[in-house]
Amino acid sequence: MAEDVAGEDTEEEVTMKHTPGPWTTNPRAILSRVFADGGLRGGDDIASVHGANDKANARLIAAAPELLEAVKAMQKACDEWAAEFTQKKRAMDWGVVNDAYLKASAAIAKATGK
After folding, report:
1. Which domain holds residue 57?
2. Quick check: is 13 in a domain?
3. Which of 45, 53, 78, 91 has an alpha carbon within 20 to 30 A of 8's alpha carbon?
4. Is 93 a member of any domain?
């Protein structure tokens, strides 16, 4: 079990209720849309994006599954790092790592709805 910021145990694996990645866009299309793996030929339509920055926003949305996995990996590395220092009874100066950990935890919570 991982430990959350407040020190309480949380489940390591959160049951995700979103369409699994990878998600893709078609940069040559007139309409900016995000599709699950398979695109127009069988994948789920994730989002239709409109506005001045529609292509850039569609790319960001399409990257969401990979970004979530990267942030979760960073969070796990921070957990392991903290455990190692705690076991060796070393003083920890979290500093920038702690800030990144808190941001990662908030992003995971936002992405997973928890």
Report:
1. 20-62
2. no
3. 91
4. yes
Same domain, 58 and 68: no
Task: Return the ∠ at Cα 26 (arms to 24 and 28), rounded to 5°.
Answer: 160
CA distance 31 to 105: 33
pLDDT of 72-110, one tens digit each?
A: 888 888 888 888 777 776 666 667 777 788 888 888 877
How far is Cα 75 from Cα 50, in angstroms, rounded to an integer? 33
Which residue type does 15 have?
Answer: T
Residue in the structure block whose two tokens are 């390591």: 12
Identify the residue whose tokens are 């903290």: 82
Q: How many C-beta neighbours within 10 Å does residue 24 have?
A: 19
d(CA 21, CA 64): 8
Tell me: do 57 and 82 sit in the same domain.
no
- Cβ distance 18 to 61 under 8 Å? no
pTM score of the predicted model: 0.66
Say how far apart CA 51 and CA 31 lie, in whole Å: 10
> Which has more pLDDT, 109 or 49?
49
Number of domains in the chain: 2
